[in-house]
Design goal:
The protein is α/β, with parallel strands linked by helices. It has four helices and 19 strands.
């Protein structure tokens, strides 16, 4: 049985309640969400914003020592909306098509995650194509057909000015014989900000199962003002050289990538059209991220592309990857949004 499921979520920010609301939710099929949660800590009394202020447009801006700009009337941390995306079938099988759309209105801040690992199941035996040894040797990728369908997941998020999205799903496990196609696109307004990661686990090691048949296909694009900031595409046949080569996964089965895009207003407004200025700011942030990596012996490497910060993990321990990404996330949340550490409880259950 195949599933075609969709989920549309819209968030807005209400100054009167100082909360981000899930103001619209529409689902079709098996994709659903739990009720919105607000688990993050309440602000200290001296840091609370005057309740009479009903707009951020008049907020003063002050320059901090790290060359970032922050609103003096910042939104309270307790107003951040947390959402858990649920998929009751528990995994994506051949022919399934999942579509998720996130729309964040101005000033909204949403943390969206999943309650457990995502699973891309192997195709049924009756649908598996017969592999040609020559095709594998030449890394030829067989295109799925109606007879041999792929599983597909599409995510599109739109972020208005001053919106923040943290799309932080738990790891995805690719079963042997899975044929996957994942597309993620994020469209950011000039002062929007994004934190997102993807952790891929190939095969089920607890069952001594390797990912030796099937196909892995994933694409990530991050845009701002109709200009691409990040574009990545990995399309590999299972058991191809990418999984074994020192230039690829080097025989490891866990791969993680974390992208963090700051708002343009981390630098002075007069410098925002100069990409070198943002690059110089990101240089200073990378120094702090690398210090964190060294101090805690995190199994990550990090760099930036003058627009966004990128961390990567290649190894065999999915929890080590997840925990390392979490620590980098907390550092960036403190630097960019002036937030106290907070770990969603669902990650520990």
């Amino acid at each position: 049985m195949t599933w075609q499921s969709s989920l549309q979520l819209t968030f807005d920010y209400r100054p009167s309640s100082q909360k981000t609301r899930l103001c619209h939710s529409l689902h079709k099929g098996a994709l659903i969400v739990q009720r919105p949660l607000y688990p993050e800590p309440e602000p200290e009394p001296e840091n609370q914003v005057n309740d009479n202020k009903d707009s951020f447009q008049s907020a003063l801006v002050e320059k901090t020592s790290n060359n970032a700009f922050h609103s003096t009337a910042s939104k309270p941390q307790a107003g951040i909306c947390h959402i858990y995306v649920l998929y009751p079938p528990a995994g994506i099988a051949d022919g399934d098509e999942l579509t998720m759309t996130f729309d964040l209105q101005p000033h909204s801040h949403a943390v969206i995650t999943t309650p457990g690992a995502g699973k891309w199941y192997g195709q049924r035996k009756s649908l598996r194509p017969t592999s040609d040894v020559k095709d594998l040797q030449h890394n030829k990728i067989n295109t799925p057909t109606k007879k041999h369908p792929q599983a597909e997941q599409n995510i599109h998020a739109t972020l208005a000015d001053e919106a923040v999205l943290e799309w932080l799903p738990q790891e995805s496990i690719y079963f042997d014989h899975s044929v996957s196609n994942a597309n993620n696109r994020f469209d950011l307004a000039p002062t929007a900000s994004l934190l997102t990661w993807d952790i891929a686990v190939f095969g089920r090691q607890a069952y001594n199962e390797a990912f030796t048949h099937g196909q892995y296909n994933t694409r990530l694009q991050i845009w701002r003002d109709n200009k691409v900031l990040v574009s990545e595409h990995t399309h590999q046949q299972a058991n191809s050289r990418w999984f074994h080569s020192p230039l690829g996964l080097n025989k490891h089965h866990v791969h993680g990538t974390f992208w963090a895009v700051p708002s343009n207003d981390v630098i002075d407004i007069k410098d925002q059209k100069n990409p070198l200025k943002l690059g110089q700011y990101l240089d200073s942030i990378i120094v702090e991220v690398r210090a964190l990596i060294d101090d805690h012996n995190l199994p990550l490497v990090t760099t930036h592309n003058y627009q966004a910060i990128n961390c990567r993990y290649i190894g065999t321990d999915v929890r080590a990857c997840f925990e390392a990404f979490y620590q980098v996330r907390e550092l960036l949340r403190e630097k960019w949004y002036d937030l106290e550490p907070h770990r969603p409880r669902i990650w520990d259950t």
